[in-house]
Design goal:
2 domains, Alkaline Phosphatase, subunit A, globular, 33% helix, 437 residues, alpha/beta, 14% strand, single chain
Length: 437
Amino acid sequence: MNWDAVGAFGAAVPDVTPNLDHLAAQGVRFKHAHVTAAVCQPSREVLMTGRYPHRNGGMGFEPIWDHVETLQERLHQAGFLNGILGKVSHLAPEHRFRWDEHQDIGDLGFGRDPQKYADYASRFFNRAREESRSFFLMANAHDPHRPFVGSEQETARFGDGVSSIPPPSATFRPEDIVVPGFLPDIPDVRLEVAQYYNSCRRCDDTVGAVLAELDASGLADETIVMFLSDNGMAFPFSKTNCYLNSTRTPWIVKWPGVTEAGKLDEDHFISGIDFTPTILDIAQVAPIEGVDGRSFADVLCGDKDAGRDRVFTVFHKTSAGTEYPMRGIQTAQYGYVYNAWSDGKTEFKNESQSGLTFKAMDAAAKEDEEIARRVYDFRYRTPEELYDFQNDPDALHNLIDEPEQQDRKETFRKDLLEWMREVEDPATDDFLGSIKR
């Protein structure tokens, strides 16, 4: 889910996420919140270890190293009840995550049935109350992951099972939506974006169903709720990249009695790498040594943290296992991306090309010069990219060769190299060789 699919974050399409908007009205939302790696399994394994992918072993769709300690292990040791709904296989190996309750896609109506999420959440909350245990529940909607509501991909994936999946509580037609600025506004793109928004609405239905069960359990007033997505929307120039629309996430935190209701934090950058240390800090459980992130519990309590002025983001491999190493830095205004794989010949291929959008862009490129340029840029990139995200959030104008941006480029290069050395990034030598040429 893209950050801007949520009404509370300024969604251009009205009434997509009423439940998330209500949650945001009760808590704090972060303008500068990012996942660390914009693809599902690596993103989640960063969340639950507090380590960058090359430091936990989960650089692609693979298990973390067996010696890496997880948030769930530390909570289990402290007596917490651990539960997960959906995406179970995306936290591997399973024995490192110590789930007491786990239901995966087959138990949850292909991960798309809000009532099934509600039923299992209710059972989990009741168990926690009956056993008088603190708990951690990770409820993962499979919406709006492809296949989207009403798409041909959905029928191809689920067959006759499509009829058993509840429709979203509201639907959007192509004429109802606004096409994101990083995509061309052509008919098949508009159609697929509408399907995506319908999936966002059903994700919101799932959020509402789980939170209703939390309220019914009587535990809501003593439960911290966080919502975020694992990566941007599965369209070109978003998921599996290091752009603003790849890693920015609609992160909402409701901490009863602590967070200020309806607050928008515009000052602090938080990242997926910070999730584990933050949860352990809040829970007053001993921290895991050697993590790369740090707690932002002080920010949730209303304190200022001057050190939160940027995030570092990474990408390693697609779900097909193909390596496209990328690194990024994002500040409040600018973003710098290093594409180690870009050599003018290697072609980028990812999941987003499987649907209507990229095929429509590729066809339109034969007649439209601007779309042709975008298709070429998506496939081949350049080794370095620099964007003024404050004025160009859709990353349409690469400033890397602009004369007035050369000092800024050098500053970003220096900052990225320093960070890469600090975290022992395996791409450090390649980057150093690239910027010396």
